[in-house]
Amino acid sequence: MKSVMQLSTAIIVILCSFLFSIPALAQNGKVVWNATIHMDAAQAESTSESWGHAILRVTADKKLTYKIIIHQVDEGDELNNAHIHYGAQGVNGTPFIPMMMGIMNLGRNVTIQLTDQQYEELINGTTPIYINVHSHMYPGDSVRGQIRD
Question: Using an 8 Å Cβ cutoff, are 66 and 57 in contact?
Answer without folding.
Answer: yes
